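Changelog entry

Holo records now carry the ligand SMILES as an explicit input line rather than a separate metadata file. Below, a converted record for adenosine-5'-diphosphate, shown in the new format.
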Amino acid sequence: MAKILVVTSGKGGVGKTTSSAAIGTGLALRGHKTVIVDFDVGLRNLDLIMGCERRVVYDFVNVIQGDATLTQALIKDKRLENLYVLAASQTRDKDALTLEGVGKVIDELAQNFEFVICDSPAGIEKGAHLAMYFADEAIVVTNPEVSSVRDSDRMLGLLASKSRRAENGDEPIKEHLLLTRYNPERVVKGEMLGVEDVEEILSIRLLGVIPESQAVLKASNQGVPVILDDQSDAGQAYSDAVDRLLGKEVNHRFLDVKKQGFLQRLFGGRE
Ligand SMILES: Nc1ncnc2c1ncn2[C@@H]1O[C@H](COP(=O)(O)OP(=O)(O)O)[C@@H](O)[C@H]1O
Ligand SMILES: [Mg+2]
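Structure line, unchanged by the conversion:
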């Protein structure tokens, strides 16, 4: 059976698309046939981060409206055998995705893939509802800031009440916390919430902590999911998160302020 995973958050700009690309790629790297679906109608970010924007011919809305088959619309990754992307439409019509249409596409994908990753748009409106409705598991992306944590908490309420699983009275959606853009220096200074604070407020299982990192911007500018940069802290943190998602016990890294060497202290450290 395929696993349908939604990558969601209350707030925008917290790292959902970055995380969808990294985690989807990580699952494919480990041999799991994976598709990442961009639900952000009108924006189309995922294909840029995945580096396949020039190969988008048909998109999610075309499939729902019957203008293309899934086979025509799925974009195969050039780097990995098991990885596919379904791009979002650039239409301005936010109603182009319907519950029935999305359900059909998700069910068809579920027959052909091991993991279906739904990259949710921001907010708690229709697009975000459609992205999470069919999910088996949710990765709730949160930044260590009060407003982001508050919005994630609201999203947890929706996951528990407004999903297919909740409506059918099935096992609830399994929730994972992914704390992104974590900056230990700012936590020490009291400018950001610490991991323990966020865990305590949301009380869901911690899937991973992704450090604030220059590598993320560099990777997305190059159209390479940051998890493929295995020298980077963010890439390694995503890699650990994927292992945990697959049930491995892996210690958390990058939680503490980096100890600087003598020369770095003298001349100022680089990221
Ligand atoms: N760990 C990180 N370190 C630094 N910048 C990040 C990190 N994660 C995401 N970003 C940046 O934050 C911005 C929003 O990320 P994105 O994944 O598009 O968020 P969302 O999909 O939630 O709107 C992007 O500019 C991205 O490069
Ligand atoms: Mg996004």
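Spot-checked after migration. The chain is about 40% helix and 15% strand. The first strand starts at residue 3 and ends at 8.
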